[in-house]
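Blinded run. Sample ID left blank on purpose so nobody reads anything into the name before looking at the predicted structure. Input follows.
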Amino acid sequence: MFCRGFSGSGYGQFGSFGGGGMFLMMGFGFLIFLALIFLAFKLMKNHPHSNLSLSNNSTSSINSALNILNERFAKGEIDEEEYTKRKITLNQKN
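Blinded prediction complete.
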């Protein structure tokens, strides 16, 4: 008798669903949650020390190192023996 409120059912005008407002807020909260997860992955991918960026850049860094090694050998800064040893080492990392 005292807990029924103004509509007589005790749950509001539209029953236990509250007119759909609760579902609207849950959906909005879920969208915010998905946006935060997306942002976290985006930031981690761009972070230089994260594992996600390491897997994408490992091949390009080895290619860059090989290019530098080739340039140093072409300029005569290193001899053929040192060039061969370093090239084998770099190819083993790939």
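Unblinding after everyone has recorded impressions. DSSP finds three helices and no strands in the chain.
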